[in-house]
Structure formats: C-alpha cells, structure tokens
Amino acid sequence: MNLYDANHCPVNQFADSECISLEHGDGAGLTRQLIHQQIRSKFANPILDRLGDAASLPTVTGPLAMTTDSFVVSPLFFPGGDIGSLAITGTLNDLAVAGAQPLWVSLALIIEEGLPLREFERVMESIRQVTQQAGIMIVAGDTKVVPRGVTDKLFITTTALGTPLAGLGSDPRSIQPGDRILVTGSIAQHGMAIMAARDSLGIQADIRSDCGLLLPAVQALHAAQIPIRAMRDATRGGVAAVLHEWAAQAGVTLTIDHGQVPLNDATRGMCELLGLDPLMVANEGTMVVVVPDGWEAAALAALRDVPISRKATVIGQAHPRDIAPVTVIRSLGRDIPLDEPAGAGLPRIC
Predict the structure, then answer these.
(1) 215-223 vs 83-97: helix crossing angle, rounded to 10
(2) Segment 184-194, tens digit of pLDDT
(3) Cα Rg, the chain, nearest whole Å
(4) Which one of 2.40.110.10, 3.30.1330.10, 3.40.630.30, 3.40.50.2000 gives the CATH number of domain 9-164?
(5) Pairwise CA distance, residues 40 & 246, whole Å
(6) CA distance 234 to 350
(7) What's the confidence (pLDDT) of residue 86?
C-alpha cells in the first residue's frame, strides 16, 4: 500500500490514520494526539511539559549565543542520517563552531498532508537520540500541517541557545600569514550521500553522510588551550566557500594542498562521475580550523583524540594577499586559483 496516496489518508480517521491529515494541524483533538504521542513523549522535560506559549528558561549569567536554521533536505532519509538528525546536528554545530556550549533548542515542524505517521515517528526518534547524545533539551516548538503539494513532506526549523566557552574566541579577521589550515575529517560525504540517495539519479555508491556533532572536537581544542584564529563547519559550498569567506575578511591568500585533503575513494569517484569538485560539496560533521603557525601539531593531537575528528589533517596555510584569494596546489604541483562556489550545484542538501 502506498501510504503517501490520498486514497489511503482519510481526513476524518483519527486513531487509525496511518498518515498525517489536515486535522492533525487544526489545533483540536488530533493535534493534541500528535503532539502528545509523537512529540512530547520523546522530548519530555520540565520546561517543555508546561506546554505554554513560551518556554520559561532558567537565568543564565553572562552572554548567550543564538542561532537559527531551516532544513528542507530531500530525500528525508539518507545513508548516515535523516532530516531530524540533520536539523539538530546542524544547528548545534553552528553554536559549537561559534565557541558555544548548547543548552536549549526550539523545534518547528511544517508537515505535508499525507506524510506517513511511521516516517514522522522515525524522524522524531532520530531527533530524540541526537538531543540525548548532546545533553540538551527541546523546550519549545510548533507544528503546522499544510495541504498536499504545498510543501514536500516535512520541513524543520530550529533555534538554539548556548553559552560561550570561556577563552575560546574565533575571528577570521585575525588570520595572519603563516597560520595553518586544518580540516577535521573526510570531505564531501554529506552532499554525495544525498545525491546517491536520490532515486532519479540511479547511482549505487557506498557513501554515508558525515552528519555528526562537532561539539566534542571543539571542546577538545578548548581543553588543550589551542588558540583558534577561525573555525567553521563546511556546509553548503563546502571547504571552498569557507576559505573564500575567510580570505575576504582577513585580506590574505589561503592556499591548500589538494593531496593533503582527506577524501575517501567512493566520494572521490562519485564527484568525478558528476563533474563536481569535492572542495565545493557540503559537509555536515566536518569543520575547517585555522591555528597560528607552530600550534598545528597540538591541535591535531587534540582533534584526533575525538571520534568525530579522528581524521584531522593540516591541508594548507595563509600567505600575504596575492592576486587570488584562495589557491590550491593540484597534482602537478602548480598553485592555481580555486574558484568560489557559484549557484546551487546540489540543491536541497540540508
């Protein structure tokens, strides 16, 4: 039976409904049933359980860090993750690379009429697992159901609050000639995993998304007292987009050695097949870090002690500004400009 078919999603069927109907979003009985059975039951905590119009949060002394993000990935499920794990991981990673310890998250869901309840429950369980792993609470949220065709199955918006880790600063404008550029893991896995999961392409590839929490890697750098010039998760636009942004802010040229960039064989092969530069493909559990010259060995030691960044590698360094803001040393040993990503080569990857 195709659960994503109008013939199998009767609007007036309550407890026996196998998929989301418009009545799940009308604020009445079926809405309460969806929230209590599929959402609240997985994220129960004293703040959320009040079910108020706003979360009443404990007082925090000192500054707060805040980030917000939306997720529209297609397909919802892919090797290494799904839209639920991606939403929480991506949001918490934004806080982590800003040098902040996450505390609370809000979760807003836009659901298309007809989404199978078993798929929705699978996403909620994935979110529960990631929040438990991260040790944070979902404290507020919202659920909307829209008619079939208005959206694509499920969109998620998250907002997270955290507290800055003392002494862990990051400002790309501080990058200086001689600074070393590190990447914490194999690149391009998320973007290629999403592409391989899209049935229309018909690609068979053993590639899993690198979707994962970067906070342990950031905490390791903090504990080792590594001075950080800049730190960013290389999501849309990949490593290349991060380097171009930093080069513009710091007024330097950033040069990387293509042969030093970690890249697994399956990902390399798929990028070659599709004519994509892996440096421009999205990651969801890999970050780029710049440290002062002489600190790279200590940084690598700290990062490699954590599973998420076990493959951390030095891939380049900063130089006085030249004609090109970002350059790459390719296989023939020539230093050539690396273009800034233009357009959406891989739409809806997060």
Answers:
(1) 20
(2) 999 999 999 99
(3) 22
(4) 3.30.1330.10
(5) 41
(6) 12
(7) 98
